[in-house]
Amino acid sequence: MKKALITGVTGQDGSYLAEFLLEKGYEVHGIKRRASSFNTQRVDHVYQDPHVENKNFILHYGDLTDASNLTRILQEVQPDEVYNLGAQSHVAVSFEVPEYTADVDGIGTLRLLEAIRLLGMEKKVKFYQASTSELFGKVQEIPQNESTPFYPRSPYGVAKLYAYWIVVNYRESYGMYACNGILFNHESPRRGETFVTRKITRGISNVAQGLEKCLYMGNMDALRDWGHSRDYVRMQWMMLQQDAPEDFVIATGVQHSVRQFVEWSANELGVTLRFEGSGVEEIGIVDAIEGDKAPALKLGDVVVRVDPRYFRPAEVETLLGDPTKAKENLGWIPEITVQEMCAEMVAEDLKVAQRHAFLKENGYDMPVCIEN
Ligand code: NDP
Ligand code: GDR
């Protein structure tokens, strides 16, 4: 039985990757952080009672800032494959915690690689690094592929640039099977609530259910190449099944604006609301339909206001990936379209909003967290 170790197992990708590897018959080990409240919601469905024999999903407390902890876990687990998905992954937040972001996302990668090397495991372990399209930042060519020059635009992007190069360096210096997946944005119903797609699907669902008054947005003109996390974790595994390590761009090759994503979500929700028999007028909404870029949002659907507090000190305006190498060399093709993904996300968030609204109507008012 192959063993995998996943940092960031409690995150969006970590949870889908754990499911995927368990289905493939792996013994999966994950590193979770100690938190003051439960933080394993995304993997609770694959959690196994620690009292059960022959478990194949095992969580370890740990942190990418703690080298001795990483060394001990690696020694204990003796993994065949290590997936380094752990990170302070929010670009806007990285401007507020730049040093921590550098420590976890940049030096954390070095700590893991160095622990593997010091334990003499560098010829045995295959290492996957969660690199990012944020490396391209202020893009130098369109679309971006494996040879496009990097120009990161945030402390997050710069930290991930260090991680990218240290992975290349350990591959070249020590012959490690180590590779970078340069992944473009990928989302799902498990996406963190403050990334833009989830903020939209959750926010509009809440507004529709009367739980919030308005959706406040930042730069609605930003362009992204969005895929589904489930498709992208498959590719993370595929990258480690080759004879030789290589870096790959993982993207759909299709680009849309944030505004477009708002429009799809509203349209998805509009259908659902009419189906439920509660007229869109009851949502009591709209306003930010601006200029000739106006989306097909209907007046009365949903209030969307632009709030400059969500602008970033330096913005990545446009990202569009060229996944030709992944398609040709590995036969990887994304199966879920961005529209299908949006529909899935809206459906999940609407269910949650409906539960909250039901409880509220029946006197059990639960606060809805609107931090974004
Ligand atoms: P998430 O933010 O959902 O998950 C990040 C994970 O890292 C969480 O499990 C988090 O733990 C953990 N983590 C945070 N800080 C530390 C730390 N100090 N030590 C150990 N673990 C830590 O991210 P995604 O799942 O979306 O992304 C996975 C990886 O892929 C990240 O490295 C991200 O930067 C990168 N990436 C993501 C893309 C995307 O579009 N999703 C695109 C390209 C790259 P906790 O749950 O406790 O917070
Ligand atoms: P990104 O994702 O920065 O690309 O990083 P995010 O969803 O946060 O932003 C995408 C674009 O939307 C614009 N935007 C807003 N973003 C947020 N979060 N909130 C808003 O209200 C808002 N309004 C507009 C942003 O300015 C941006 O242009 C994600 C993360 O998963 C990284 O870890 C990963 O490396 C990259 O994707 C690829």
TrEMBL record:
The keyword Lyase applies. It catalyses: GDP-alpha-D-mannose = GDP-4-dehydro-alpha-D-rhamnose + H2O. Keywords: Lyase, NADP. SUPFAM superfamilies: NAD(P)-binding Rossmann-fold domains (SSF51735). Residues 5-345 form the NAD(P)-binding domain. It is an enzyme of class 4 (lyase). The keyword Acyltransferase does not apply. GO terms for biological process: 'de novo' GDP-L-fucose biosynthetic process. GO terms for molecular function: GDP-mannose 4,6-dehydratase activity; NADP+ binding. Its cofactor is NADP(+). Gene3D superfamilies: NAD(P)-binding Rossmann-like Domain, UDP-galactose 4-epimerase, domain 1. Its EC number is 4.2.1.47. Catalyzes the conversion of GDP-D-mannose to GDP-4-dehydro-6-deoxy-D-mannose. Belongs to the NAD(P)-dependent epimerase/dehydratase family. GDP-mannose 4,6-dehydratase subfamily. NCBIfam families: gmd. This is GDP-mannose 4,6-dehydratase. It comes from Mariprofundus ferrinatatus.
